[in-house]
Each structure stands twice: as structure tokens, then as C-alpha cells.
């Protein structure tokens, strides 16, 4: 076994495409993966997403070695089957990161020619993390009450 051998890649078949779940909670991760610094962001950033197993049977989406979202329940079964069939190979899906109403969103699948569809209701269930400074929530630093 080679120590630093790259795993072979298997392309994921994503028929219609979908929005990744939990984008508001994953904003810090998405911004880190975008790596824009002070540069302005393009409207749509192409993404090559790895599909990996997560806790409780969930599937996570990894972009540039950062977890940027979760596969929603309606798309989990087909991708879980593909992930199992891939064995030791890495399951890779095309995608894009785009900005919608103040939130960066991850799209999995081919970029739609007519624009991205609206985000389904109930897709995001996790609350965005609190803003902290050195681990202390900013709300606790506010002395105004």
C-alpha cells in the first residue's frame, strides 16, 4: 500500500441536480472554501464536490477539503448506492457555488441553463452558528443589555 496514493475517482450520476442542505449553517465553511479574501466573488463558482459518508447515514459534500453541505434526504438513496458501489474510489459530482438572497448556496449537478431553481422549503434545519471572538459569543460581549 502506497502511503500517499490518490484514490481513483468515480463520477457521480446526478440526474436533475439539487441544492445542498444546511447552507446557512455552513456559510463559514463555504466562504473558507471559496478563498476569495478581498477579491470580489463571481456570480457562479464551479465546484468539484466529493460525496462522503457522514454520521447517522447522512452524506456530506466536500469541496476543496472543506465540508460545505449535506445531501438532502430526497437525493441520499441514489448517491448512497453510488458511494457503496464506488468502494475505495472517491465519488465526485459536478456542482457550483452561487449567491442567493445573501446566502452562499451549493448546487450539486450540472449548472441549469435557465438559472438555479428556488431552494425548497425545509431544506435547512440547522441554525447558523453564533458569531464569536476567540470562542466567546459576541452577544455576551454586548454590555448594553
Strand proportion: 25-35%
What kind of sheet is the major sheet?
A: 7 strands, mixed
Kindly state the number of beta strands: 9
Number of domains: 1
What distance separates the N and C termini? 60 Å
Class derived from helix and strand content? alpha+beta
Helix content range: 10-25%
Mean pLDDT figure: 87
Topology as a string of helices (H) and strands (E): EEHEEEHEEEEH
Which stretches are low in confidence, meaning pLDDT under 50 for 5 or more residues running? Answer: none
Using the CA coordinates, give the radius of gyration. 17 Å
Number of helices: 3
Q: Which term fits the overall shape?
A: globular
In words, what does this structure look like?
The chain is built from three helices and nine strands, in the order ββαβββαββββα. With 145 residues, the protein is of the alpha+beta class. It is globular. Helices cover 18% and strands 32% of the residues. It has one domain (9-141). The strands form two sheets. Strands 1, 2, 3, 4, 5, 6 and 7 form a seven-stranded mixed sheet that branches. A two-stranded antiparallel ribbon has the order 8-9. The mean pLDDT is 87. This is HIRAN domain-containing protein. It comes from Cellulomonas iranensis.
Amino acid at each position: 500500500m502506497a502511503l500517499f496514493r490518490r484514490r481513483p475517482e468515480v463520477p457521480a450520476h446526478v440526474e436533475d441536480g439539487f441544492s445542498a442542505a444546511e447552507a446557512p449553517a455552513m456559510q463559514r465553511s463555504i466562504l473558507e472554501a471559496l478563498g476569495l479574501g478581498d477579491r470580489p466573488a463571481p456570480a457562479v463558482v464551479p465546484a468539484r464536490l466529493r460525496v462522503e459518508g457522514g454520521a447517522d447515514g447522512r452524506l456530506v459534500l466536500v469541496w476543496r477539503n472543506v465540508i460545505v453541505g449535506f445531501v438532502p434526504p430526497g437525493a441520499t438513496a441514489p448517491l448512497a448506492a453510488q458511494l457503496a458501489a464506488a468502494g475505495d474510489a472517491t465519488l465526485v459530482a459536478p456542482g457550483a457555488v452561487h449567491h442567493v438572497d445573501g446566502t452562499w448556496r451549493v448546487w450539486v449537478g450540472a449548472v441549469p441553463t435557465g438559472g438555479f431553481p428556488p431552494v425548497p422549503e425545509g431544506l435547512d434545519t440547522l441554525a447558523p452558528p453564533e458569531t464569536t471572538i476567540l470562542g466567546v459569543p459576541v452577544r455576551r460581549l454586548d454590555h448594553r443589555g
